Amino acid sequence: MQKYLQIAINEQGTKEIKGQKDNPKIVQYFADVGHEWVKDDETPWCAAFVGSCLEKAGLTSTRALNARSYLKWGRKIIKPVVGCVVIFKRGKSSWQGHVAFYMGETKTHIKVLGGNQGNTVKISRYKKSDLLGYRLSKTKLISKTNVASLVGVGGVVATQFGTIEKAIDKVTSITAKGGDIADNVGGVIGAFDWKMLAVIGVCCLFGYIIYERNKKVNEHGI
Questions:
Q1: Higher model confidence: residue 180 or residue 99?
Q2: Could you tell me if 53 and 11 are in contact, meaning their C-beta atoms sit under 8 angstroms apart?
Q3: CA gap 202, 196 in Å, rounded
């Protein structure tokens, strides 16, 4: 589970205080995203809540108070996953909206955990027809699985560095003597032995793995 989602879950039950008083936890959501000037719990706070959870988890939010600002946050995904950011339209205005965290769905509604949902932090349902988009943080190329793969390939390349270096020296020697590469195919092939071809193959495989994983991330976020 994403750290920010766990933070959001722990905030369930936080709600506005009726009357003159204001809930200090909601006021703090505004402060967490750089809006210390907001001192009440009446100002729409769904975006402040999402931003606060992200910031507490070490991610940079939009730090804006309009829900639709999250349409430009992170990266777009096609298929939602639990915890991704969901943006909905609200009302008839082009700037109104609602933002929260995806928790599931039915045939007609999306279940989200968010703030200012009935003046409370809770799970609510919103119409799929009001959906504007799903977003996740930009972490594709630095995911743990990709880094692990890179380290593995890096190790193989490192152990074969001598072979690669010899191949480069061989080609350099041929061209330095005025020889034509086409006339020295045998020498070049000899330099690029099977070990080096294996390294190249591993690198190509790694590139394919990264491509497939990133394609999966684009769709599912994982």
A1: 99
A2: yes
A3: 10
43 contacts: CB under 8 Å, gap ≥ 6 = 30, 65
Cβ atoms of 140 and 153 within 8 Å: the answer is no
In angstroms, rounded to a whole number, what is the distance separating the alpha carbons of residues 185 and 91?
Answer: 71
CA 209/CA 205 separation, integer angstroms? 6
CA distances for 71 relative to 25, 86, 144, 200, angstroms? 26, 9, 26, 40
Enter the DSSP assignment of 17. Answer: P
Burial (CB count within 10 angstroms: exposed 0-12, middle 13-18, buried 19+), residue 57: middle
Lowest mean pLDDT, pick from 95-99, 105-109, 176-180, 193-197: 176-180
CA dist 69 and 99 (Å) reads 9
> How far is Cα 220 from Cα 222, in angstroms, rounded to an integer?
6
Helical packing angle, 144-159 and 161-176, nearest 10°: 60
Burial, 151: exposed, middle or buried (Cβ in 10 Å; 0-12, 13-18, 19+)? exposed
The token pair that represents 141 in the structure block: 């190329």
Nearest-5° Cα angle at 132, 109 to 91: 80
Residue ranges of domains in the chain, CATH in brackets: 3-138 (3.90.1720.10), 141-220 (no CATH)
